[in-house]
User: Fold these one by one.
Assistant:
Number 1:
Amino acid sequence: MSRYDNVMKFFLEQKEENEKRTKENIEKYRKGTCEIKVVSKDIIDKDATVNIKQKGHEFKFGANLFMLDEFETEEKNRIYREKFPELFNLATLPFYWNTVEPEEGKFRFDKNCPRIYRRPSIDLCMEYCKEKNIEPKCHCLNYDSLIPDWTKSLSLDEYKKKLENRFKLISERYSKVIPSFEVTNETLQSNHNAEFFMEDDFLEWSYLKADEYFPNNKLIINDYNIWDPTDNNRNYYYMQIERLLRNGIKHLDTIGLQFHCFFPEDKEEMYAKQRFNPARLYKLFDLFSKFGIEEQITEMTIPARGNSEENERVQADLTESLYRLLFSHPAMNAIIYWNLVDGYGYKAEPGDMTAGENIYYGGFLRFDMTEKPVYKQLNHLINEEWNTSETLKVKDKLNFKGFYGDYEAELHYDNKAIKKEFSISKGKENSIEL
């Protein structure tokens, strides 16, 4: 079989059932009805119309913002700044301890701080997010793998004091302007750099301290190891979350699920049964939804494995199929892709496609910043197919159904136009007056 057939096998076999489910669920869980009331009888009698145009999504489509102003040319920096908000309304910001505080007491928050590749300063990212109306997200507060060298000689008590001080400083600076914070990341992995990681209270301490310093923010747990063979309550990650809740952790708002496909091409047929299988994916997400906590795909990489036409088609069709499925699941609130551009991944020199994350060709833009088919297909999904725009003839009351998000209504009558912004939100009674 071709690579396409191997990767898409289960989507093709389950095509009818999966398409029916995703279509019905998107209509049921991603759209709501809004009532429009026109209060002037004079306008109603003048054959008026209302143009409805969606301006943004309530559901979050995101990516990491690690290459903001990090490219080797200003032209590439400009294209990145323009392309990012065309698809994304959320950005993951690099709060890694080793690059936020590489020297004890010397923080890289300010936009003019010394540069570190793929780690733009937090304030620079915040400035860009505000300019483009993108929601920033912290990644993350306590990630043992990327800690400063200066912490490695600290005693356990000293380390915890420094870590708590990090929570405190981040809270003071960003808790009012960043809605959500990943608290822990990849704690089911075997690698660790600090003695604290091996302590029994690593998780509980982290969430209790996060609740103390971020009481009004959304707190997220994040892990890659969601893919163990079981999709029942003996799943490793499920049991970890279950233990946290049983041990009294009440402030946990979001279950983060990583979806990196970092495995070799000759293993794709085997992994397809697990990761590219609609029935299995729905069962897995249904499992975590038993907690009654929202879910999000926090980090996603779908490989093209090269820039041939066939490879880029595999990436585009698989990514679109996965986005449709993920968008349709009622527990999901965000899909956050990882690297937007090929050739600038972790553990590789820029343009070296033989090392690190670069080997997967997982971006939506090529190294020269041109759009890949996956970019075009997702742009169509997010900004066209999953976007509501229509014109309605005015009467005293009228309803329309649209995707949850921000809208603009423009009332036309007697060669006049009146505009009003409004939102359709999940779980609310939505209505506006014109």
Number 2:
Amino acid sequence: MAQAERISQDAPTDRLLAFIEFLRGRDILISPADSLVAMEVAGLVGYNDRKLLKNGLGSALAKSKFEIEVFNEAFEQYFGAPSPDKAKSENSPSKADDNPSSQELGEQLSQAMQARPELAKSLSSELVDALQSGDEAAIAIAVETAAQQVDVSAIKLLTQRGQYIRKMLDALGEQALRDAAVELESTEPAAFEAVQALREQLRNKVRDRVDRAYMVHASGDAEDMLDEALSNMSLGNVDQHHRARLKRLLERMTRKLAARHGRVRKRVKRGQLAVPATLRKAMATDGVPFKPQWRKSIRRKPQILILCDVSGSVAAYAKFLLLFLHSLQDILPRTRSFAFSSNLGEVTETLRALPVEIAIERVNLKYGGATDYARAFEDFASLAMADINRVTTVIILGDARNNNTNPRLDLLAQIRSKCRQLIWLNPENQRSWGSGDSEMPGVIRNCDMAAECSTLKQLERVIDDLLVQLNS
């Protein structure tokens, strides 16, 4: 009895903590202090008034319009329909009509158990008594005890749902009800229906408990698994259905890089001692250098020039590269963007003036077509070669396939000779470099770095390394 009382008292708190974990899995930030406030609110308002509980927890855990919407949806999903007691108080006709038949079935089962002592012995348990009497508290305690015994919180996959339901039913002793149903099916139809009703009632309770455990412990893991899969999937293979999720992943990566690199404090260096200037200053103090003078050098701000091939084969990759880089404007230095297939043009102002996704669509329409690296490099040379200096990083995204024509790699070498570093990102698998009309062997010789970049994870790694270099 003491254990039952302890489980009964702990169950609401455990369920509230599980609900808080459920909310965290839906991108609601909840601190330990918020959790304590929520527990205090739940203790004050109680769990009987569902609407009051929802409003109280919402005021403690949801802090913005977005979080309120997520909270309301999550509350209904997690806590489900109103409690049986409330449902009874609403005088539902369907419930009222069901009660007499349930009572009759219970009486039939009782009569069968009286007539057959061996059946009464096999069905003699607190759980069966609770099911017959409708003791919701006792049933909930039994189900929660079984959940702890089978460790239902370890559920990770939806396919494990049936396994845990079966494990919990076995832990509850549902086998006795099954055996009784088999024995009564042909001899006592009414008693058989009563046993089946008890089995169904118990199965529903167990199914609800497993579903709740899956929502809290597995759905978040499943979301993480999907995010991980998308992060490592080639951007060209992501279907339209997952584009919104991919965009959220991109925003999350942006926030992470901003947090990592946005607060970098550069160490001030005074440089070398300026001896002539120091001696001149020291003349006023009889040659004692109280005020050393240092050689001054003007540090030019680094800039990034991005060239994106937006032809059909790499358009998806270019879109996410531009989206990613322009999401990092707060921590990136001066950035200029260029798009090309054959002719090349600067699209920096287009991307700044319009929402990025709309701007990128317009860029694809204007510059999409057959690839011609020679013409693109010639256009870039006339547009930006004069602006390249030793603090410029040039990033080119393309598959280096030039339809078996001269790509003018001499212009690429000229760009490299003027800039700080030249990075080439190729969305193709590295094993394909140099095959067919690929010019990657020549590209590699004229770049400081050439890397495969077809996934968000690879893109994040490249930009992370670049920011480390720029902040060093």
Number 3:
Amino acid sequence: MFIDIWTIINPIIRTFVYIITLYSIGSILFKFHFQKYFNDEINYLCNTIIKNSAFLGLLISILAFISIAGNLGGELKSIFELELIELSFETIQGRSTLFLIVGFSFLSLSPYFPSLVFKAFNIVGAILISISFVVVGHSLSQGIFSQLLVLIHVICISFWLGSFLPLRYMCTIKNFTNLYLIADNFGRYAVVYIGILILTGLMFSYTLLGGILPLINSTYGNVLLIKLFIVSMILIIGAINKFRIVPEMKKDLSTGQIKLKNSINTEIILSILVLFTTSILTTSLPTPMGM
């Protein structure tokens, strides 16, 4: 019974880890690329997103670490057993979670330092958080090449998803003319980021599956197909944004803001579904090759 509970709890925890991680790193990347178009309000917003997501990330990372003891003991009460908590430090999952905790700690502390240290702490925090994804899971069993693919994949998807909240907020600011410049330039960067995202994702998936047939005849492959279908829907919406909504925004800013905001709301919902299916793949299902 308790094992079934952890089978449910683990993907949920992992989904929150993904969401908070990608929005944290994504906000840093978004600010890096587009800060020259910001006003004080947008700059404050991005800093607030980084600060709040870092705090939430720290909490969920601690919860993720505690859940390792629960998995080891197989019971809900196992999270309170000191011996199992100590043993958690020796597991691969435990070490990965420690990278998350330290990374989010850097992001949490960054607002309390001057600008140069603030940027340095953000960079270090983002790197540590990214590393946490390549020292555990399927990528670890496949070697350095797969780890590199995952690292690049995390950075690219962070840029994409991390743009949602800042762009959505800009859609609520009346007469914010820089929104067109940011959205237009975002579309140009997105072509590169998303192209690399798709390439690394397909290469890593093929490595794990060992071929095309397991997409059809394995549970892991079936869930992966669902994920790919949802991703394709987000890509279609992104293409509509770039080639239709953003150009219209140049002619009619207020109407374009409404359309872009509604589009982003849909993308946010779909991205959460993608991250949930990813969490199932990484926590609950073995690959067709038995990893």
